[in-house]
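Subject: Sanity check before I submit

Could someone independently write out the structure tokens for this chain? I want to compare against mine line by line before I put it in a report. The sequence has 640 residues.
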Amino acid sequence: MLAKVITIKPGAPSKGFANVMRYVMRADEDLPPGYTLDGGHFNIDDDQLYWTLDEHRLGYAEDLAGVCDGTAEACANRGRFKGNPVYHVAITWQEGEHPTAQQAKHACRYVMDALGFGEHQAAWAIHRDTDNDHVHLVINRVHPEKLIAVQPPFKKDYFILDRCMRELELEFGYRRANGPYITLDSPDGPKIVRMSRAERRARGLLKEDGKPPLTRGAAAAEYRLGADSFQSWVAAAPARDLKETLEKPGCTWSDAHAVLARHGVTIQAKGSGLVVTTTLKNGRVLAAKASQLGRWAGKAELEKRLGVFVAAEPGGALPLAYAEHIESALRGRPGRKGRQAVPREDPGPDHAEPDAGGPKRDPDQRAIRRQQRADARDALAQRFNTEQEQATRDKVRQREDLRDRHRRERAELLARHRQSRAQAYAAARRTGQPVAVAQSLWAWQAANEREALQKRQAEERKGLSAKLPRSEVWRKWLERQSELGDEAAQAALRGIRYREQRKKNQEIDGIEGEEIDPLRELTVAALHAEVDRKRQRVIYRGSDGKEKFVDTGPRIEMRDRSAESLEAALRVAAQKYGGAIAITGSGEFRERAAREAARLGIRVIDADLQAVVRSEREQRKPSLPRAEKRRNVRKRDLER
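---
Independent answer below. Compare away.
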């Protein structure tokens, strides 16, 4: 089973369900004799429909379109949606497989739930008049009650659909197809695993490796002619001969041109790529992209093998191989209704799977284990998201509890202050202390207590509402889960630490130190300091507006390595880090920066740069005048 998202064709209406519903329900055509259209709908009340599929296909299609368009229009009127509400999926079975109506309905419901459309309006119907039975599923992206438009994860719906197909194949017992997900047998039963394009190509599972996909025009030409289009023809024998030539050592562009010329084909530059062309007897030129021969025949791939493209030398007339192929295919061809399809060329033997006694590491088992790790990571992320959503809901309750507690604390403090004021006045009258003095002392003490309460409550509110970066929350959560023995969390944490270590080992020209005053705007000479509050850094630009260096907090990273920018960065670092700095980056930069720091009197704490610093200081010691040197020599002689 395979699934495909069908997009709007050029020239078709941009929005609405009317045309697609009529097509899916075969409302504008007569069904062949004995043909029954199976179909139905989801999440649409029957009392909203005047017709059923059995009674009147056109009325049923228009009713469905009216209901879905009404939901989308209600959403648009609320200013929430202006796009296309139609989400159209085709689910195709392999040749010879004929699903029942119940199976097709179950497949549609399964796909809707996986895509997050379980509560949305939808309609489906099976088309059985092609070589492969297939069901069209049309979903309204607008939720019928919430009136919000839902879009599946960007560029991920293809993978979601493909995994659904593998799961449905196992459930229905149909033959297994291959896509981004494939089904492998294991001692524990079938396992669905994700495979990269390279892995599928190595196993011979990529369909386009044997026959590149045709353009719409080429497919139409094959239908009209009843023979291979130029794209199909050039991807067979010419492509095979060219690939064999490229695999020979010392192959050049001349060799490539020569082997294609034997088939009457030329390869030439067009735009940013390459095309292959041939000429018909009437002088018409047919063209196809070079990658039509195979993915290995794109311009980038060919130039990796042969160097920069070199055009063919002008020569004589080329053989009309493709034209003769068309003539032989059309010779004696019956009329259109009785035409016979031209046999396709054998794509070659299937690639054999490695037997169990071959490689020491079974590639199937490796793929299964890799998929198990991926599933564990997905489950871990889902658990994290669930807990974070619960924490968000809990925070609302915690904030209300905090407000109530703070209110009680302020009321209690006010009551204590009233009581202590009365006690202070009574004590002053007993001791003969002036009431004004007692009042002043009480007010000072009460103000201190009130200020302390206000600061503490402000810190508590800030702590509850503080938002840490999601990456930091994720890491802390992983650390807690790792301590509980969660293997998936431990693996994820190891990955984070590994990436951090790799990043730390990267050579970045910069200056480090103990951060004393983060995000402090420091200006030197003509520099302009620009504070990036979102990323918590300061960008220093020159008068030309270009970045000179960036203060990220614990490090000042160089963007411009001129002498002026380096001196300015060192001066800023000396002020920011208290006069002691460390230097990172390449060896050339570190030595250069250390010498400049020594010239400016800035202390460099790197042990391996101390020799460079001493050398620079020795070179910059002022030389004594010659007369003073002679006096010093005579003085030493007298002392002896």
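---
OP: Matches mine. For the report I'm noting this point. Residues 212-330 form one domain.
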